[in-house]
Specification:
Layout: E1 4-8, H1 10-17, H2 21-29, E2 30-36, H3 37-44, H4 51-61, E3 65-67, H5 74-87, H6 91-102, E4 106-109, E5 122-124
Parallel strand pairs: 1-2, 1-4, 2-3, 4-5
Helix pairs in contact: 5-6
Length: 125
């Protein structure tokens, strides 16, 4: 294990479940993987999602930590607001970035918008 901690963005989850070799290798080398509850919701509202897709996603969820939002977590809420205001990310992306910081992880995404957050560690695939 490399000691790496990753938060997967929704597009990375989709690519991983479609068999992206780079992301499969990344997961095999990871010590910890989390996903934001935002990504969980985004995945489940994709149009055209089949029952097979849902089952595969549920199996994936058994292997990762789902990172939620708790109204009493003032530090996380403050970080979301700060990122949203400073970098003008969409609110769901600000949540994902803040959750990544909060869990001392590296964000795995194909979304170039996250490059705006210069202090965020990102793996673009």
């Amino acid at each position: 294990m490399s000691g790496s901690r990753y938060v997967f963005d929704t597009n990375a989850i989709v690519a991983l479940l479609q068999g992206n070799a780079q992301l499969i290798q990344l997961t095999q080398d990871a010590d910890w993987i989390g996903i934001s509850v935002i990504s969980q919701i985004e995945f489940l509202v994709f149009p055209g999602l089949t029952e097979s897709d849902r089952q595969l996603f549920q199996a994936f969820l058994q292997r990762v930590e789902i990172l939620g939002l708790i109204a009493t977590d003032g530090a996380l809420i403050h970080r979301i607001i700060e990122i949203r205001q400073q970098y003008r990310l969409k609110l769901p992306d600000a949540v994902i970035a803040a959750v990544t910081f909060h869990h001392s992880a590296i964000l795995v995404t194909a979304d170039q918008e996250f490059s705006k957050v210069n202090s965020l560690s990102v793996v673009h695939w």
